[in-house]
Amino acid sequence: MSNSLIRVNNLKKSFGGLKAVDIDDLNFKSNELTSIIGPNGAGKTTLFDLISGFQEEDNGEIFYKDKNITKSQPYKIARLGMVRTFQLTKVFDRMTVLENLMFAGSSISNDSLLQSIMKLSKQKKYEELLQEEAINVMKDLNIEQMSSSYARELSGGQKKLLELGRSIIKKPDVLLLDEPLAGVNPKLAEDLLEIIQNLSNQGITILMVEHNIEAVMKISERVVVLAEGALIADGAPQEVRENQKVIEAYLGTGDE
Question: Which of 97, 233, 252, 256 has the most other CB atoms within 10 Å of its CB?
Answer without folding.
Answer: 97
